[in-house]
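User: Assemble these into one structure.

Assistant: Restating your components, then the assembled model:
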Amino acid sequence: MTPVWFMRQAGRSLPEYRALREAGGTMLEACLDPATASEITLQPVRRHGVDAAVFFSDIVVPLRLVGVEVEIAAGRGPVFPEPVQTAADVARLVRIDPSLVEERGESIVDAVQRTTAMLAEEGERRGEALPLIGFAGAPFTLAAYLVEGGPSKDHLGARSLIHSDPSAWHDLTHWLAEVTGRFLALQVRAGASAAQLFDSWAGALAPADYRRAVLPASAAALEPVRALTVGGDRAVPLIHFGVGTGEILADMASIGVDALGVDYRVPLDAAAARVGSHLTLQGNLDPALLFAPTEVRRAAVHETLAAGLAARAHVFNLGHGVPKDTDPDVLTDLVRTVHAWRAS
Ligand code: CP3
């Protein structure tokens, strides 16, 4: 049984998403509108038949909730008009009370509740339970945007701050851990049945810096969800993912997670050898294969599935998010290919 879902399965690859977004409003407004967010979350589930929904939101949503000015620029990503770069900037930021996430998070709770109700209906039609995966950004990846003021190629701003002002870096990342951890816990308490921590840009770090200056804050971000259960008894499964993280996979696993997302640069059997066979692996078809001829793509899917057998369990996914120009029919075919393999 190999389940399949995709990072960014909701979004611009789907005409029904583009139609809904054209009706108006910014990306963050869509995230904070429960009817819109729940509908967008369901779109890829209905269309592709994936085995899980990913809550439609963004890693910067909790920062917006606590009052940090942020927008998502189309085609670019999160932009902060007031970057956090000096010790004084950090001191100002960390005075914001992280409990504002819960205080102002009503729309998130509402959106998750609507989504799980819609998934229950959809699951009934299909005859299988459809989990909702909640997620949050890890402190380093959030800091990579916050310090730079927007997307950057090598996250030099954040990586420099680690060394130029370790104390400000510590305060910043531990405050981010509280804010993002509360956002993740809010989703789980509202009904999400798995939680993924995205440290998308952690692969930009030297392993020693990752271990010393980043990993403790990521572990802290997961603290508020560790105690939470799904259905009253089972601990909520935790997933950890980053891009280009081959050198730090074992470290990423060490903070106590159930599953590790692997990007396409490390074959899943090699990843299992690095982290041990007690973990579930998630991944990792190169999104470039979505633009390859059908037979080439299907062969690559079979190769990924075979490599995934080395892990305790395998959740099929791409090695990173769905590119916006992806033909949605190709994604549907990919889901069918994975399902047919598990049936054979
Ligand atoms: O279906 C899903 O996977 C859920 C949706 C999701 C979004 N953002 C919606 C989104 C998820 C899981 C995220 C997380 C996220 N956001 C991450 C971590 C995951 C990863 O891909 O590494 C990161 C680094 C961000 C920051 C961010 N937000 C980026 C880099 C972008 C893309 C910028 C662009 O336009 O190319 C966004 C915007 C964003 N988040 C979109 C979506 C659907 C596109 C918004 C639009 O419609 O214009």
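The domain at 15-343 is CATH 3.20.20.210 (TIM Barrel).
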